[in-house]
Amino acid sequence: MREKFRQFMIGRYGTDGLNQFLSMSSIVMLLVSLLTRVSLFTWLGAALLILCYYRSLSRNISKRTEENYRFYSLKDRFNNKFRSLKEQWANRKLYHYYRCPQCRQKLRVPRGRGRIQISCPRCGTQFIKKS
C-alpha cells in the first residue's frame, strides 16, 4: 500500500508552507462552525481543505511553487510590520516616531529635545515636530 501511494505521488507537488496554512485555517474554520453553528464557516473550511488537497495533488509544480513564494513574501511583509510595531512599542519611552510628509518614510526622533527640525534622509524634506 505504501509503495502504491509513493507511485501515485510521483510527479505531484506535495505539501509546503501554504498548504500547511490552508489546512490549519480549514481546521480553525470547521471548529468555529461547530461552536457557532454558522454554516458559512463550514463551507469556508471545506473550501480551504479542498484547495489544500488540490494543491497537494497538482502536477503543475511551477505554478504551485510560485503561489508558495507569494505566500511567503506576504507572510514576511506581515511579520516585518509586526516586528516593527513591537520594536516601536518597546522604544516608546526613548523615541518618537514620525512619518515624512513628503515621502512617508518612518523617522525616529529622540524624546525630550523640545521642538526640533527634522530632516528626512530619503527626500531631504525638513519639518518641525515636538520630540
TrEMBL record:
Highest taxon of the lineage: Bacteria
Membrane-spanning segments:
27-54
Q: Which UniProt keywords apply?
A: Membrane, Transmembrane, Transmembrane helix
Stated name of the protein: Zn-finger containing protein
| Species this protein is from | Faecalibacterium tardum
Biological classification of the source: Bacteria, Bacillati, Bacillota, Clostridia, Eubacteriales
